[in-house]
Amino acid sequence: MNQPVPINTGRPSDDHGGSGLTDLMQKVAHGDKEAFSDLYDALAPMVFGIVVKVVRDRAQSEEVSQEVMIDLWRQAARYRPEAGSVTTWAATIAHRRAVDRVRSAQASAHREHAQAAREHTIAFDEVAEQVETRLDSEQVRRCMRGLTEVQRQAVTLAYYQGLTYREVAEALRTPLPTIKTRMRDGLIRLRDCMGVTT
């Protein structure tokens, strides 16, 4: 089982009935690779069908289906016929794996969003109090003049007009990572110029 077998998304094999799959599973539990190959052919299409309905992304569904089939190989000895059919057992594992993948993807997206929000807040909190108390002061104007044109544009749009990084990127027609870099560098220069300590 070093090399994963490509996911077969064709029609399931009709060569094995319920008892046939149980026999195959018992052989797989004893390390029979040929039996696993037959089990794979019989179950992979059903597994993929379950996974793709939950995950909805074909490439990810193929990955998850592969993981399910590897689970069946590794956990074959844990299968108990009295608890249900092989098909039901495989379907349960497939559904659980698919739901885990969706939750993981959602959690990752949430973390990225939260991190972006934190970066935005932290960057401005470093200078916000000082800038707010000296908005019209000569020092702020002088420090703003010390920024490059692109930094000044980004900081002005984000801080003075309250735009998010993404909105600044859209307004300046510039990639988001570039805007983040300009903002970070600009705020560091402002902080240093104004003598703000962190």
From TrEMBL:
SUPFAM superfamilies for this protein: Sigma2 domain of RNA polymerase sigma factors, Sigma3 and sigma4 domains of RNA polymerase sigma factors
Pfam family membership, one: Sigma70_r4_2
Gene3D superfamilies: 1.10.1740.10, Winged helix-like DNA-binding domain superfamily/Winged helix DNA-binding domain
Keyword Transcription annotated: yes
Source organism superkingdom: Bacteria
Region (Disordered) location: 1-22
Keyword Cytoplasm set for record: no
Residue ranges occupied by any RNA polymerase sigma-70 region domain in the UniProt entry: 39-106
Record key words, sorted: Sigma factor, Transcription, Transcription regulation
Domain RNA polymerase sigma factor 70 region 4 type stretches: 138-190
Protein's GO biological process: DNA-templated transcription initiation
GO molecular function: DNA binding; sigma factor activity
Family note: Belongs to the sigma-70 factor family. ECF subfamily.
Record-given protein name: RNA polymerase sigma factor SigK
